[in-house]
Design goal:
Number of helices of chain B: 0
Shape of chain B: globular
Distance between the termini of chain B: 36 Å
Helix content of chain B: under 10%
Oligomer: heterodimer
Helix content of chain A: under 10%
Largest sheet of chain B: 7 strands, mixed
Number of helices of chain A: 0
Shape of chain A: globular
Structural class of chain B: mainly beta
Radius of gyration of chain A: 14 Å
Number of strands of chain A: 12
Radius of gyration of chain B: 13 Å
């Protein structure tokens, strides 16, 4: 069975602070895919990143960075110099190879105040 | 065009009404999905269509009836809903059901059943 745990239900920071959102996953598969989605108050889930299980290289995209560590089954997401527009619910998700179904974590609500 | 559109944005209906939700994408994707999302919860998969054929039905009650008239359109017909069906209904699409692509989501329809 697959499982994604986002232990942080809600995080509040002040603008310009760095913040890390944790994601821990469980799967018996050797090939799998990990995702992060952002859901602002408007409701749309915005795709941020996909990482496959064979690619442990960390990624940076502007103020966003992701740290994938298979040894600890974690795929953490860091926002550097947070902004008010980063306020949203962030979901980490897992998909088995050969399956279309996403297993979502419960989400972390990030509130960035001015 | 990397957009999934959904209409209407908001819908209020009575328990005896019949209504439909619409979803459209022009990315040439051959897989389309319906999700239901309750407040403060992650999205839950309802249906998956692949090449216009129903591929997955996650034991959804028959008062929800999906339809895929062509590769760009996905409908969700609603009939005799219950107040507990009030939720955000999200449509998504992906290249196909293989491992290649990620799912892109629409903005959702916020449904209220009175």
């Amino acid at each position: 069975a697959q499982k994604v745990t986002q232990a942080q239900t809600e995080i509040s920071v002040v603008e310009k602070e760095d913040v890390t959102l944790d994601c821990v996953y469980e799967t018996r598969d050797t090939t799998y895919y990990l995702f992060w989605y952002k859901q602002p108050p408007s409701g749309e889930l915005v795709f941020l990143i996909r990482r496959n299980s064979f690619d442990e290289q960390n990624e940076i995209s502007g103020r966003y960075s992701w740290n994938f560590q298979k040894s600890t089954s974690s795929f953490n997401f860091t926002i550097t110099a947070s902004q008010v527009v980063d306020s949203a619910v962030y979901f980490c998700a897992l998909r088995q190879s050969g399956y279309s179904t996403l297993t979502f974590g419960k989400g972390t609500m990030l509130l960035v105040s001015p | 065009d990397t957009e999934v559109t959904q209409t209407p944005k908001h819908l209020v209906m009575g328990m005896t009404n019949k209504k439909s939700l619409k979803c459209e994408q022009h990315m040439g994707h051959r897989a389309m999905y319906w999700y239901k999302q309750k407040a403060k919860k992650p999205p839950e998969l309802m249906f998956v269509y692949s090449y216009e054929k129903l591929s997955i039905n996650e034991s959804v009650p028959s008062r929800f009836s999906p339809e895929c008239p062509n590769s760009s359109l996905l409908n969700l017909h609603l009939h005799a809903l219950q107040p507990e069906d009030s939720a955000l209904y999200l449509c998504a699409s992906s290249q196909d059901l293989s491992d290649v692509g990620e799912q892109f989501f629409g903005p959702g329809t916020r449904l209220t059943v009175l």
